């Protein structure tokens, strides 16, 4: 008796049906709200501000953590209350300092990567390397030209390594 499916007869004795292997699902079109959300997120200013705010939040958390680890040198001479006050002040100072640094770092890196990506019309590791160089150079510019070059190379290398680790670009 003839098989109703021509692919089943071609499958042979193993009994595997080709129609079971190839399942085609319909393409889902994005809703107008999803398109608006993508348009907003593709704006370099919005992306940079969000990255700056998130970097600032990360800086606050890191400042709280590392500020709590700072021990006063004269712990034997301080009472428990003095140690608590000292630690709280250290945590506050470190949090503010780290929040500023990470916010600026996130803002510069995100803005540079977004602008480079839009200019090149490509989404690849080169954008990350150049944005890392711009960020590292900008953060180290107060140290002079040598520090700027080292910051550029160091941050670009770090950015590319993180990019490869997360395997965002293939």
From TrEMBL:
Subcellular location: Mitochondrion inner membrane
Parts of the chain that traverse the membrane: none
Keyword tags: Membrane, Mitochondrion, Mitochondrion inner membrane, Transmembrane, Transmembrane helix
Entry keyword Transferase: no
GO biological process annotation, one example: protein insertion into mitochondrial inner membrane
Membrane topology: Multi-pass membrane protein
Source species, domain of life: Eukaryota
InterPro entries: TIM22 (IPR039175)
A single GO cellular-component term on record: TIM22 mitochondrial import inner membrane insertion complex
Any GO MF annotation of the entry: protein transmembrane transporter activity
Family statement: Belongs to the Tim17/Tim22/Tim23 family.
Protein name: Mitochondrial import inner membrane translocase subunit TIM22
Source organism (scientific name): Oryza brachyantha
